[in-house]
Amino acid sequence: MGLRETFRENLKFYRKQAGLTQEKLSELSGCNQNYIAEIERSSSKFPKPETIDAIAKALNIRSSDLFLEKGCPRNVINFDSEKFTKEIIAELSEKLRSDMFEYFKKKINY
């Protein structure tokens, strides 16, 4: 994957991860919303270093993060720790409930 494609993928990824629309990112970075959309959509538009810094600051990341292939969403499995934790708690709660039900059922019948 090329540098520009990695940048575009990371820009979209980090923007969405931050819960920002293109409009909100444009407000925070001082860039035009259409420009943000064009950067995300096309490899022919590539921002100046000052613009990259402003975007990174708005996303609360380092500018270099936008260029790291290892950070690129295509190379990273999104791990939602909160969702995982909730799923584990629900699974363990159900198992505990089931085990407790069986335990008391045996105690009552004996």
Structural descriptors:
about 110 residues; 434 Repressor (Amino-terminal Domain); rod-shaped
Protein model, in words:
The chain has 110 residues and is mainly α. The chain folds into two domains: 77 residues, 434 Repressor (Amino-terminal Domain); 32 residues. Helices cover 65% and strands 0% of the residues. It has five helices and no strands. The longest helix is centred in the C-terminal third of the chain and has 29 residues. It is rod-shaped and about 80 Å long.
CATH structural fold name of the largest domain: 434 Repressor (Amino-terminal Domain)
> What is the overall pLDDT average?
85
| CATH homologous superfamily (4th level) name of the largest domain | lambda repressor-like DNA-binding domains
- Please give the count of helices: 5
Q: Helix- and strand-based class?
A: mainly alpha
Helix content: 55-70%
Low-confidence stretches: none
| Main beta sheet | none
Question: How far apart, in Å, are the first and last alpha carbons?
Answer: 67 Å
Radius of gyration: 23 Å
Annotation, overall tally of beta strands: 0
Please, how many domains?
2
Give the secondary structure arrangement, pairings included.
Elements: H1 3-17, H2 22-29, H3 33-41, H4 49-59, H5 81-109
Q: What would you say about this model in short?
A:
This protein has 2 domains: 1-77, lambda repressor-like DNA-binding domains (434 Repressor (Amino-terminal Domain)); 79-110. Helix content is 65%, strand content 0%.
